UniProtKB/TrEMBL annotation:
<dbReference type="InterPro" id="IPR051465">
    <property type="entry name" value="Cell_Envelope_Struct_Comp"/>
</dbReference>
<dbReference type="InterPro" id="IPR000572">
    <property type="entry name" value="OxRdtase_Mopterin-bd_dom"/>
</dbReference>
<dbReference type="InterPro" id="IPR036374">
    <property type="entry name" value="OxRdtase_Mopterin-bd_sf"/>
</dbReference>
<feature type="domain" description="SLH">
    <location>
        <begin position="258"/>
        <end position="321"/>
    </location>
</feature>
<feature type="domain" description="SLH">
    <location>
        <begin position="329"/>
        <end position="385"/>
    </location>
</feature>
<dbReference type="InterPro" id="IPR001119">
    <property type="entry name" value="SLH_dom"/>
</dbReference>
<dbReference type="Pfam" id="PF00174">
    <property type="entry name" value="Oxidored_molyb"/>
</dbReference>
<protein>
    <submittedName>
        <fullName>S-layer homology domain-containing protein</fullName>
    </submittedName>
</protein>
<feature type="domain" description="SLH">
    <location>
        <begin position="198"/>
        <end position="257"/>
    </location>
</feature>
<dbReference type="Pfam" id="PF00395">
    <property type="entry name" value="SLH"/>
</dbReference>
Amino acid sequence: MFIKKFKIVSIIMAMVLILSQGIVFAGNVNAFAIKISGPGVEKELEFSLDDLKAMPEEAQINEEYIYNSKSGQKSVKVKGVSLAYILEKVAGLTVENALVNFEASDGYPIDPQTLQDILNQDLKYVLAYEIDGEPIDNDDNPESEEIVIYRKLKEEGEFGTVFKLVVRITVGEAIEQAEESVKELTKPEIEPVKEIEEIVFTDITEEYKFAETAIYELAKRGIVSGVGNNIFAPGDVFTRAQFCKIAVEAIGYELEEYSGNFTDVKAENWFAPYVEAAVREGLFTGYTDGTFRPDKEITREELAAVVGRAAVLAGLVDQEKMNKFVMEKTSFEDKDEVSSWAANQVAWLDAQGVFKGVAEEKFEPKKVVTRAEAALIVYNALFNK
């Protein structure tokens, strides 16, 4: 009997030992804050927060970082380690320039950075382990080791300089210097119209100053125009037909003869060629009853869907990448009210800071867009890069 009990106890102790070892092992699976790898570095490395804090003084950064959010410009006191130092001095770079990808633990897409930017001492990319004197916890799990990457602003009003929940940095293969300008070259290339006289709108009051630059820049390009007598009418609205013209002009598509696809659009209508081009290229769609509803006032979510499609067609973002942006990740209080057919575009545009000055706490997807708001959204999304 004693021997039997001893065997049982031994088996239980062995199982406890095995399980405890498994638990220890599992606990170490994500025991690092950041992993660095890729063909552009000599060695693959993992760093815990303690590893980062133990870096030499020359690697440490402790200073103010300014960044832009939907609620305005903010600043934080950041403590962390220079990403350039880690790549150059610790990981060992094997390339002079490459695309560097930041992978977030929640899968949120982050635009690739260039190694040239990361090594730029003015931009000071930092692996932050402390913000305003407090440890970082964006995943609501105080047990996980977490960093946030900050970088300095390259230009005034720039968004996308804070990268949260980054767990992996991958340095890619060497790229030619000329490839850096690819994104710039794929933007809509709309030549400013030759102005006979200076464009002046007398009704851009203080209420509409937020869109003044956008209105004039789009007017110079011939994308928007006034309503006569130096009046822009910023508080008025755009119809679907009117915004078809703006979308087609912004991308620079050729007009074609109207093919008669909609029961409420006639070939003699001024907007018919624009509707044809917009629908042909996938910027707009009609309704299931065979109508286009050209005189219907365009709403925020409708306009956002069109502008998001335009950004894809202009080569500013891949459709596959845009599809990864979801409303759940936005901070809009009414995010659940955005229609599913516009959700990816709204979320992507929001992440680019396009709605700054138009939509802050709430998006109000069914609200009709004013001419000033429409100008700002188009300019920010397609030209203000």
